[in-house]
Amino acid sequence: MKILIYGGGSVGLGLASCLIKAGGDVDIVARKQTVAALRKDGLVRRGIFGEYCAPPDKFGAFASLKEILKKTYDYIMVCVKSFDSAEAAKDLAENKALFDKETKIVLFQNGWGNAEVFVSLFQAEQVYSARVITGFHRPSDNEVEITVHADAIHVGSLFGCDLACIEKLCEFIDRGEIPCEKTSDIAGDLWSKMLYNCALNPLGAILDVPYGALAASDFTRVVMNNIVEEVFEVMQKAGYKTHWQSAKDYLAVFYQRLVPDTAKHKSSTLQDILAKKKTEIEALNGAVIRLAQQHQISVPYNKVVYNMVKFAELGSK
Q: What is the pairing mode between strands 143-149 and 180-182?
């Protein structure tokens, strides 16, 4: 099985480690510095799923799609940040020689709206989405650490397309030690993750505390409860649904299971701000705000945390 990982950040390297270990023919497209480190020292994975080292001759590493010659892929896994979706889609569309008739694009990204970006340039039956609630950290250019894991990776289609074609990819990721399975309700999974991320990511970044600390205080619980209630209303008015009938039902699971499972984790939004990088807030609370405007819904709590993160982004430049 031939797989291209587009984006050599922590998620991309974590998934690549699974696929290489499972025997996949894997190539990684990443920044020049990452490519140099991978070619020199291989790919190292540590953390809760054990240690694994893939030597440089077990995979390919490239700084550009144009460096890849005379090869097509079964799967192209997009692992870039959501704000890079448009650029990634354009880059892949301009390199159609990497595709054959059966190539599938699978989006391993945060937030809502990424699939729509890709179907503007590709057929809907080519584009699949994944929900990942595993924590990845990259301590060095060629090393990834898996810090937390709340549930299996889910892969499916937002457009009602056939799922048989992604079974092999799920099998390989699973064989590489991160549980992965197909789902017929990826929209429900993505909105479940939106509820989780919109409540925790911005607030954890603003206050610089782990998720468990947010759930431990009545003050921050009030904010998160209202964010979740707003997201739930917007989701339903926009015609989507998730695995819970109400915000109250979701919040019970959120506090009893989801936050405890990731209590020590710090927000990826915080990590981006500290690294002076752009955050994914536009695809999280920003996406909720835009949908709310379309449906004339008031979302003041989402707006407050969104604007505070945008201010923090300015300070990180």
A: unpaired
3-state secondary structure of 245: coil
Q: In this structure, what CATH number is given to the domain that contains residue 39? A: 3.40.50.720
What's the pLDDT tens digit per position in 56-99? 999 999 999 999 999 999 999 999 999 999 999 999 999 999 99
β-pair type (153-156, 180-182): parallel
If one counts the domains in the chain, the total is 2
Give yes or no: 193 in active site: yes
Read off the pLDDT of residues 214-260 as tens digits, 9 standing for 90 and up.
Answer: 999 999 999 999 999 999 999 999 999 999 999 999 999 999 998 99
Residues 262-291 pLDDT 10s: 888 888 899 899 988 899 999 999 999 999
Question: Is 180 found in the same domain as 33?
Answer: yes
Together in a domain, 179 and 193: no
- Check whether residue 31 and residue 125 sit in a common domain: yes
| Last residue of one domain, picked from the residues 142, 162, 184 | 184
Find the domain containing 128 and state its range.
2-184
What is the value of pTM for the model shown?
A: 0.92
Annotated active-site residue in 193, 248, 266, 303: 193
Per-residue CA distances from 15 to 3, 24, 226 (Å) = 11, 11, 34
